[in-house]
Amino acid sequence: TFYFELEYGLSSEEALLPQPVPHELQPGLRPKKVRVLLAEDNRMNQVLASKILDKLGYTFSIANNGREALKQLEESPFDVVLMDIQMPEIDGYEAARRIRAHADARVRETPIIALTAHALAEEVDRCLAAGMDEFISKPFQPDNLRAKIAHLVCHKVADCTAENGPVKSITKREYSFINLAELEKLADGQTEFKFDLIDVFLEESSLAMAKIRLGIENKDGNAIYQAAHAVKPSFVLFQVKDHAELFSRIEELATMGGDSIDDLQSPFAQLENNLLAAEKELRQERSLLTL
Asked: 14-153 — its CATH code?
């Protein structure tokens, strides 16, 4: 389920992996665009990743879970798989293991980049143990994704390092409950891009809050954790006020379960209040974009 890397350097966990190095195209290879299979079940993440892949000039297909990813990979060749870790039916770990054990060498040898919200050393190890080649934390930057893909496939695909166009001028507005710096950077002046992400966030965040609320009522820690984990990258993208601290507390209490779920009421109420204020500011931003 999906995020976007703010202006940090590589995390210590990502530094554990081999870093991208330039590859020259092997002689005689036929130029073609990179074909990417995006295995991701979260709608916001699908929209965001699609916009980035399109901006980078790659062709791509979307699979909503690990089972669909394996099926698509068996039916068509892809240069690289972007594999979300937490998906229904078959998660990213199991999908990667099945790909690596596949009888068809074309399927078996397809590079896999793990997509995950948790940049933890143990998760990196688990991804590598499942057969994945690279690791990228969500949310991620287009340049970082392009570098990861280049590291894996540029020695065999010609058209894989498309340059970004000139940076477009942007109008920065200050808000109290959101920060749009990351969105502006990703959108690069494309109003439609911002429209799409704002609209998806407004819809998906409300659904996620309803799921968390129901989980609290039913004392279902797993449901609370899954809903929070799925929507958290969207809060990171829009930098909703206090999101990191509140989600950390909610996930911690949900994992503990039992009576600890009663303690969720306070951080969840604060998260809902901050979200309501953030939604108001996002609607204001959207109205200004339409002028």
From this structure: 3.40.50.2300
pLDDT in tens, the chain (291 residues): 444 443 434 444 444 444 433 333 343 333 357 899 999 988 888 888 888 888 888 999 999 999 999 999 999 999 999 999 988 889 999 999 999 999 999 999 999 999 987 667 788 889 999 999 998 887 777 888 888 888 888 665 555 554 444 444 445 678 999 999 888 888 877 888 888 899 999 999 999 999 999 999 999 999 999 899 889 889 998 999 999 999 999 999 999 998 899 999 999 999 999 999 999 999 999 888 764
How many residues in total does the chain contain?
Answer: 291
CA distance 114 to 107: 16
**Helical residues (DSSP H) of the chain, grouped into ranges:** 43-55, 66-75, 92-100, 105-108, 121-129, 142-153, 181-187, 191-217, 221-238, 243-256, 265-289
Q: How far, in Å, CA of 183 to CA of 29, rounded?
A: 37
pTM of the model: 0.71
Cα of 76 vs its chain's centroid, Å: 23
219 vs 85, 213, 261, 264, 272, CA distance in Å? 25, 10, 6, 10, 18
Architecture of the domain delimited by 181-289: Up-down Bundle (1.20)
Q: Enumerate the domain spans of the chain.
A: 14-153, 181-289
